[in-house]
Amino acid sequence: MLAGDIVDSHIHLFPRAELQSLAWCKEGHPLYGQHSIEEYLEATKGLSRVSDQKVQGFIFIETDRKSHLENEAGWNEPLRELDWIKRVADGTPQSGEGHEPQHAHLCLGAVLWAPLPAGVDAVKRYVDKATERASSTWQLVRGFRYLVQDKPRGVMLTHSFIDALRWMGRNGFTFDLGVDARSGGHWQLHEAIEMITRAHEGLSEVEKVKLVINHMCKPDMRSRDQHGNPAVEAFNDWKVAMAKLASFSNTYVKISGGLSEIDPLPSEAEQGALDSDARAELLQKTRSWVEKWLKDTLTIFGPRRVMFGSDWPVCNIGGSGNNVGWINWWSVINNFIKDNMKAEDQADFWSGNATRAYGVDYPPIAR
């Protein structure tokens, strides 16, 4: 693993033709439009101007397509998403989708939606359908996500949800945990701790589901006291919860999503007008805003269980546009990592931990 390699552990992709299938993206939304490989490469191209690092690949994360649990008809859009990422990974684009055969190697793994609250039998039926749809591309499916950040209390603590997680662990799948401490409430953190406690109970290490925490659990980075410091109660509660989550084996966390939890940066046009000194000042201010959470996440989980994730294209909203969002987050994190992580651990942060957590082949084998 080379220190210059980046495996982006968290990106979303969706073609313009399938925007109506997204549960959250209505006309007028900042991300209403195609976000495919071409747009991602445009977002990351600024890296070559400031660093020798290179994005070698990514992990695709499901994009919250319209779905429901009651019957298999509610799985149509998530399975359609599988068809889409299969075309990306196989290098077989449809017209106007924004990717080409030479981009196929970039997709190192995929985390799909799955109907976890419906229980083990439903998840098995879904996986059977997905396996058939994916065909030879199934090897790229590393795990599943069912977003709980916008769900009612208790969903992730039901017997059906816990049993589905236990089945996933026994079958080698990861679970991407998407909770939102700032917008959803800290009860989500406490339920997540109880969830993983029950999911791991009585199982051997190899049977325990591997947990990959998205976006540091989306902590409340906006609330500040009169001196500009993080609100003490919310910060301490988040820190205690993260330490409890880190105490479970097979648990990783993505250093991602920070631009969504702070005040938006200046517009893309305003950032484009900045000289180098003013831009450096903006990035340093952004780093100062998120640094306390970054430091504690790194301290709690250690250098072998943290990984870089851009959360593209969501980072474009807080980062203020496709030409600056990804590179802004990379710049903040790059400077932080250089100052806070030993050189011998940095390759793990940028690529090794993600490939280890998801069990992906890297460098990728021919397929």
In short:
Helices cover 41% and strands 12% of the residues.
Task: Summarize the structure in words.
There is one protein chain. The protein has an eight-stranded parallel beta sheet with strand order 1-2-3-4-5-6-7-8, with helices on both faces. It is built from twelve helices and eight strands. Helix content is 41%, strand content 12%. It is globular and about 55 Å long. Helix 3 (76-90) packs parallel to helix 4, helix 5 (159-170) packs across helix 6 (187-200) and helix 6 (187-200) runs parallel beside helix 7. The model has no long low-confidence stretch (mean pLDDT 95). By secondary structure, it is of the alpha/beta class.
Lateral strand order in the biggest sheet: 1-2-3-4-5-6-7-8
- Mean pLDDT rating: 95
Element order: H for helix, E for strand:
EHHEHEHEHEHEHEHHEHHH
Helix content: 40-55%
- Helix count equals 12
* Unreliable parts: none
Summing up helix and strand content along with how strands pair, one would put the structural category as alpha/beta
Radius of gyration: 20 Å
The fraction of residues in strands falls at: 5-15%
Main sheet?
Answer: 8 strands, parallel
Q: Which overall shape is indicated by the principal axes computed on the Cα atoms?
A: globular
Q: Give the end-to-end Cα distance, rounded to a whole number of Å.
A: 21 Å
| DSSP strand count | 8
Topology summary:
Layout (H helix, E strand, L loop, with lengths): L4 E7 L25 H8 L2 H4 L3 E8 L14 H15 L16 E7 L6 H15 L6 E5 L13 H12 L3 E4 L9 H14 L9 E4 L18 H15 L4 E5 L12 H5 L3 H26 L4 E3 L6 H5 L5 H16 L2 H16 L9
Parallel strand pairs: 1-2, 2-3, 3-4, 4-5, 5-6, 6-7, 7-8
